[in-house]
Structure formats: structure tokens, C-alpha cells
Amino acid sequence: MDDMADTVSEALPRDFEALRALILDRRESLPKRIAQVAAYALDNPDEIAFGTAASIASSAGVQPSTLIRFAQHLGYDGFTSLQQVFRERLRERTTSYEERLTVVRGDADDGTSNRRIVDGFLAAASKSIDVMSRNIDDETLDRAIDLLNGAETIYILARRRSYPVASYIAYALGKLGVRSQLIESASGLSPEIISFATPRDAVIAISFSPYASATVEEARVLSANGVPVVAITDSAFSPLAQFASVWFEVAEADFGGFRSLAATMALAMGLTVGVAELRRGRKGRKSANAKV
Amino acid sequence: MDDMADTVSEALPRDFEALRALILDRRESLPKRIAQVAAYALDNPDEIAFGTAASIASSAGVQPSTLIRFAQHLGYDGFTSLQQVFRERLRERTTSYEERLTVVRGDADDGTSNRRIVDGFLAAASKSIDVMSRNIDDETLDRAIDLLNGAETIYILARRRSYPVASYIAYALGKLGVRSQLIESASGLSPEIISFATPRDAVIAISFSPYASATVEEARVLSANGVPVVAITDSAFSPLAQFASVWFEVAEADFGGFRSLAATMALAMGLTVGVAELRRGRKGRKSANAKV
DNA sequence: AATAAAATGAACTGTATGTTCCATTTTCGC
DNA sequence: GCGAAAATGGAACATACAGTTCATTTTATT
């Protein structure tokens, strides 16, 4: 047992992914109890990283010695060296962006490296995404998509900072074969276009403080005309939240006063693709969708 | 020492951020060696999480007993309980978005929950951001910002999927008082606008496979006329990379064929604010910048 | 400057840990 | 079905560990 283990030609995995691959590769050939440990290890990597041999063994329903045998089977010289790999896995993803954000802010004074600026925006984006993943409500989402799904034409309303999101939605809806109309301020035709909307249509309105008055006003008019409004905004006190049929609260982190758009973008894509999926399901079966 | 420590009224921090705040709060009042440990702990949280009292003490340049005193000063009953907080920190951020992405993909078949779709886009965005944070090159970034800083007018070139990024750049540059010109396909005036550009200007061109021919052609013309081009694209084989003065390779993850824009957006904001910072420095001192 | 109090260093100790060993059971080849 | 080899359970072992103790030094107080 001790002489064949260390004559393996391949180097031992030093990172988790390689180890995972190795385990999956040998899965078939492992003894029962060892396989049991292997399965547990891949399912509960954190436990392996932090636990003691005894506690892990108990959780996995084996003897501590089996853990050592498992490690040795893979070529490690003991449980401890195997555990290092599981710990390394946690170390790698070490600096969360939330931490970086505070760090970046902390020493923003000592010379403005451009790298630091980009890092700041990356951190803000990452944090926004994290927050959204925790806060998004399934039911609100389902209602919004249902509502949009019923629309003949989806009107998209956003100005200034939110405009990029609107243009992305319009582009994606177009690609997905959903009829939509982007309200541009440039064209100056907003009032005419808006007057075409009926209660059988729907609106996606996006606005964050300080709310663009055009967006708010147009959304209000549309809502008053019976057109259902899905709003993406930043608080319950937003004017959009007052009359929207469904509204999302999106908390974007900012860097240097510039707020991220990452979470809003992801939500927008979710709404867009969600609607498209529904319609696709209604008609036939799914068709391959090209990269967009 | 043992009777005053546990009579603290406030609950002990169970999560890292609270602990960090507590330490920073008491920083002034801590004895020298204890403060030394505190500084080390905040700088090397991973070491605290995985190391032994002896190894950490050695790294931090103190006696092991000082570590225990540090923990007790904060109100914990020993080093081990303090260490739990540092370990918990690593556990929390356990499910990385990269992992979630594969999960989401894995069971994409079993009924298409809308939540799953949004999660997919969030995961793609997060992964894109992670990849960019690892790959971005400081020198390229500095060169690009230098180049843009020298421009009289910054022309922004992007179509279709990349257009939202362009519109965001244009908006932000406007807010920051940097002269820029967004090339819209809608207006049909692109050729005329482009003909105004001189070598004293600069171009930001954004395009990903499949490259919009208008973007590529216009960028090529501008470059041929001596206007320096900063390109954001997806590979060295991109047509934009051929003639760009500086180019960034951005690898965006995708979900269901829809690529994220998160990393591109963050980079774009970095370029924008980087240029603005440079110019602000050139003129006077920094002015407060409002949320955008 | 003298004294008390707090902080520090370093050796010590009980314990909990990873590992080894061996008896027993199971699996596999013939 | 028999014998050998591998696998397993469980206890014993050596040690590395966190925590304690105490002598010494440093800091604060009067």
C-alpha cells in the first residue's frame, strides 16, 4: 500500500479541480468505503477543508483511518496533505469584491492608478450582482414575465444612465422575435409613439434616482391609459413604484459616485429571455439560439 | 482578565465584517503586541483561518500566547473561537458564481423557472468580472487612458450588442465634461461625422464576434486617417485588433447563448473615469462628483 | 523616583489530533 | 469452495496543538 502509491507517474493534484477530475476518473475502481469518502468529499468540500479527521469521518459514516487510506489511494502521503488542496480551494477565491471595494476606497488617495479605478468598477459590479442574487423575489419575477408575455408590443422606457439597459433590452427582444418599441428622446417623437400603446401592450420602465422626468411622466401617462408597467427602480419611494403593476428594487453599488449597471443588466436579460422562453414554449419547441 | 472579558454587553462578532469593524474601532486602545496581531489578522485573514497558533504567531512576529490574548481581549474565550470567524468568512462565499453557472446549466431541463434564468445571467456576469480582474493588464490600461486623454474629441463606435456600452460611455463622458461623439447607425450620418475626425482625436471601438461590419469598417477608415483607435474586443483574431493602437481582450461568459456585458461595462467605465481623472488633475483639483 | 498595574515572553501541560497497527471481514482468483 | 489478497473496523500511539502559568519587562500613576 505504501510502495505503489508513490510510484504514480502523474503529479498529484495541487488544485481542487484537478483533484476532482482525478477522483471522478478513478471512481469506478475505488473500494466501497473509499468511494463513500470520495463522494462525501466532492459533495462537502468545505467540511474537508475545516473539519478534523474524526469529525469528517463521523459525518461521512466511516472510520478516521479510512480518510487516511483515501488520501493515500490518491497518492497523498496522508490526510493532511489532501486537506491542503481543499483549503487551497477556499483561499483562491479569497478576496471577495466587497472587500476589494472597501480596500480600493480606503487608499484611494495614494496616487490614482488606473488599475485601481477598473478594479473599483469590477468590485461595484460584483457586489451589485451578489446583492441582487440574494434579494430577488421569485414571485415578482414570475408576475413581471407573465405580464410582459401577454403584451402585443413591449415599450421600453429609459433615459440617461438607464438608457444603455433599455437599448440592450430592445436589441435582445428584436433578436428573439418579440415586438418592442424603444422610446428615444432623440427622435422627439415620444408623445406620438406613446399614444399608440393600448392596454394589450406593456411597458418596461427603468429609472434610478435622480429620476429622469421624461421617463416618469411617460410611464405615468401610459399607466393612466391602462397599459401595465413593469418598473426597475431603486426604492419603494421611487415615483415609478407608485403606479407600476410590478416593480423591482435593484440596489446597485457604486464606485466613486458611478453606480454599476451590472445587476440591472442581468435582471433585464432575465426578463427578456424569460418572456422569449414562454413564447417559444407556447408556439413550438425550443430552437437553438445563436450567441448575441 | 477572565472576568472583564465576558461581561461585555455587545454580542461577539460572528461574521468577519463585524469583527473587522470591532478591531478597527478598538485599534487605538490595544496594547502594542496585540495591535500587531490585529493588523496582521486583518491583512492576512486566510492565514488566521488555516494556520496553527504557532505558525501564525511566527508569521506575525509574536508569541503564540499573544494570539490567545488577542482573542480574549476581543471577548472570545480563546484563539479557536476567534478562528471560527475567519473560517466562516471563507465558507460563506462558498458557492462561487462559476459553480452556480454549471449548476444552472446542469438542470436547465427540469422546468424553466424564471429565477433560474436570472441566476444564470448573474452567474455569467460574475464570472466575466472575475476573469477580467485576473487578466487585465495595467500597462495596456495606462496606454489606452493616456491615448484617450490626449484626444480633443473621443469618437465612440459600437453597434448591436455592444451599443449599450457605447451609449453608456457617451453619457458618462458627457457628465464628466469630456467631449465625445457617439456614432449612431440610426442617424445615417456616420460617414459625415467620421470625416471630421483628425489624428488629434481618438476612437473607442467595441465589437465582439460576429463583428458588426459597420464598426469594423468605420474603425478601419478612422485608423487609416491617422486617428488612434482603442479597441475592446474578444480575441487577437478580431479585425479590430489588427489596426488598433491599443486593444483589450475581454472574455465575457454567456448564459444560454447570451453573453454578459458586465466586464465590458466595467472596463468602459474604468477608461471613462480614468480619462476624466487625468484631465481633472491637469486642470485644478478634484471636484466632488455626483452620482451618475 | 518609587510603586503598582499591565503587558510580554517563554516554558509547561493536558488534550485532541493524525496516524499506525493489528485483528477481522470481505472480495477475488483458481 | 479454498486460499490469498485486499479492505475494513477499532483501538493504541506519538505528537502537535491550544491554552495556562509564571517570571520578567514595560508602562502608567503618584
UniProtKB/TrEMBL annotation, chains A, B:
Domain of life: Bacteria
Annotated SUPFAM superfamilies: Homeodomain-like, SIS domain
InterPro entries named in the record: Homeodomain-like_sf, HTH_RpiR, RpiR-like, RpiR-like_SIS, SIS_dom, SIS_dom_sf, WH-like_DNA-bd_sf
Domain HTH rpiR-type per the UniProt entry, residue ranges: 17-93
Sequence ranges assigned to domain SIS in this UniProt record: 144-281
Recorded GO MF terms: DNA binding
Pfam families, sorted: HTH_6, SIS
DNA-binding as UniProt keyword: yes
Alphabetical UniProt keywords: DNA-binding, Transcription, Transcription regulation
Protein name: DNA-binding MurR/RpiR family transcriptional regulator
Species of the source: Aminobacter ciceronei
Lineage: Bacteria, Pseudomonadati, Pseudomonadota, Alphaproteobacteria, Hyphomicrobiales
